[in-house]
Design goal:
This protein has 85 residues and is mainly alpha-helical. 56% of the residues lie in helices and 0% in strands. The chain has one domain (3-72). It has 4 helices and no strands. Helix 1 crosses helix 2. The protein is elongated and about 70 Å long.
């Protein structure tokens, strides 16, 4: 590890600490920008995210009419519940 790469690693660490401190505030535009930068930098690609669930991502849920009937309490259990494979 050369001298230049050590300087770069230190600069990245200091920048990360600064962004973390600014993102934890609830202030102005710079704080929100720091929060978005950290969110983008720390986001995992979908194929590496172990919390992703294919069943949830496939969006098996209520259609709008079924949801409306459910909210009114009129939904009967006529449709089978989707099962995981």
């Amino acid at each position: 590890m050369g001298r230049g790469s050590r300087w770069l690693a230190d600069a990245k660490a200091k920048l990360g600490v600064y962004l973390g401190q600014r993102a934890s505030r609830h202030g102005g535009v710079v704080d929100r920008l720091c929060r978005r930068l950290l969110d983008r930098a720390m986001a995992l690609p979908p194929e590496e995210d172990f919390l992703r669930d294919d069943w949830v991502d496939s969006d098996l849920g209520f259609d709008p009419d079924e949801l409306e009937r459910y909210q009114r309490g009129e939904l009967e259990d006529t449709a089978p519940t989707p099962q995981r494979e």
